[in-house]
């Protein structure tokens, strides 16, 4: 009997312990609330749930052809054919594909760059432009912990998330002028002058997201000069090289101006847009250093930061980029295809503006064609955007940003009419 009682006590104790563990486990995550929806991804979700046959999605930040379909470039398909079955799937080094990095640097800094020849650039393969920005933000925090970053208003929303999660304090500088729907150059220059000497600034190299507003070449020269006076550090996010104008050299002009003026720069490159490698997460982070010894040290630290994040970058996209940029035939084909994508976007800008103006709008729509790249900052208010969605089943972010990649010859008239209807009472 004593043995039976003992077993009962032990059994009850075990069940109590199990119950306690169960209750404790259940409470571990009870305080977690659902995260706020990403404003861009939320637009796509709402679009997909809409049963209307007339629905239009101009919120997605990915290229589409004139039928609204995703595109895989011919040069990418050919590169994949060369890769298939020919290579193993071993890990890349922590810093990524050396060949991809070499080709990426030539694209950003110039084929004949003395900086590359002198080995003054610390560079690693990154998880597209987002990963490159995050690596740099963590590097900035680790080695200049008291620094902060100046970010343009507006900017790609994820920029704020990246530097926030790297615990780098953020400041902002003027960029977009809502009334002119162009660059607020005077206010921007004032902010650059008034920032403490040696401040970090985030700059969009071309096709500013979300506004599509870029400084002119002369304005870039003035910006570079003022950076020199203030000893600021320019960090360029270059997500659209080639995709903006159709000419990669032209789209890198801002970076080249800063290099000519002797700046130490950082650069995040992405091949998502200009090669259509969205899901391959192919990018590069580079930091210009004073000499080769410094570059070796900086690269080693970037690799150490990457190690606990993801250890090694993915191989497939890196191989695609390497093959395309290192092969003269495939590179020529890429240049032709990226120019075709850029020209389609430019054509849709012209068509959208023309269609709205032909409807008799009393507003100016010059900004549609003055802006460049994938996005048009329409100037529509959040309330007008809501009307576009509710009355016309047209989806975009509430800041009025139109993805021109979603505009086609088949829907441009419908889109123009809807924009005219919601804005004509203004």
From TrEMBL:
Keywords: Aminotransferase, Pyridoxal phosphate, Transferase
Enzyme's top EC category: transferase
Keyword Transferase recorded: yes
Needed co-factor(s): pyridoxal 5'-phosphate
KW Chaperone (keyword) present: no
Catalytic activity: L-aspartate + 2-oxoglutarate = oxaloacetate + L-glutamate
GO CC terms, sorted: mitochondrion
Family annotation (CDD domains): AAT_like
GO molecular function: L-aspartate:2-oxoglutarate aminotransferase activity; pyridoxal phosphate binding
One matching Pfam family: Aminotran_1_2
Domain Aminotransferase class I/classII large: 54-419
Domain of life: Eukaryota
Gene3D superfamilies linked: Aspartate Aminotransferase, domain 1, Type I PLP-dependent aspartate aminotransferase-like (Major domain)
Biological processes, Gene Ontology terms: amino acid metabolic process
SUPFAM superfamilies linked to this entry: PLP-dependent transferases (SSF53383)
Known EC number: 2.6.1.1
NCBIfam families: PRK09257.1
Additional note from the record: In eukaryotes there are cytoplasmic, mitochondrial and chloroplastic isozymes.
Quaternary state and interactors: Homodimer.
Annotated family: Belongs to the class-I pyridoxal-phosphate-dependent aminotransferase family.
Protein name: Aspartate aminotransferase
Organism: Dendrobium catenatum
Taxonomic lineage of the native organism: Eukaryota, Viridiplantae, Streptophyta, Embryophyta, Tracheophyta
